[in-house]
Amino acid sequence: MGSVAISVTVVPEGPDIDLSKLIEKIKNIIDIKDVKEENIGFGLKNLKLMIIRPDAAGQGTDDIEDKLSGIDGVSSVRIDDVTLI
């Protein structure tokens, strides 16, 4: 059994959300390997996360989406890619 790399986009509720605080909240909930800010316009930025975790049969990504969606200041979460590494 290997590992999977999961690329996730987190959209904050608005441009007034402190992204450094949001990143810290995310790090307290999920082990992320990399995070990048992506400008999308009108002062709003997305967070692009890279999560690496063991490949478990049938595990999926629902738990990641649920945990991230439950964070105060997060508008939406999208799984962009899941790759076996």
Uncertain stretches: none
The CATH architecture can be named as 2-Layer Sandwich
The general outline is elongated
Number of helices: 2
Approximately what portion of the residues adopt beta-strand conformation?
A: over 45%
Through-space gap between termini: 10 Å
Q: What is the name of the CATH superfamily?
A: Ribosomal protein S6/Translation elongation factor EF1B
Give the strand line-up of the largest sheet. 2-3-1-4
Helix content: 10-25%
Order of helices and strands: EHEEHE
Structural class: alpha+beta
What does the largest sheet look like?
4 strands, antiparallel
Description:
- It is a single chain.
- By secondary structure, this protein is of the alpha+beta class.
- The protein has a single domain (about 5-85), classed as Ribosomal protein S6/Translation elongation factor EF1B (Alpha-Beta Plaits, 2-Layer Sandwich), CATH 3.30.70.60.
- The chain has 2 helices and 4 strands.
- It has helices at about 20-30, 60-70; strands at about 5-10, 35-40, 45-55, 75-85.
- A 4-stranded antiparallel sheet has the order 2-3-1-4, covered by helices on one side.
- A hairpin with a 2-residue loop joins strand 2 (about 35-40) and strand 3.
- It is elongated.
- The N and C termini lie close together (about 10 Å).
- The mean pLDDT is about 95.
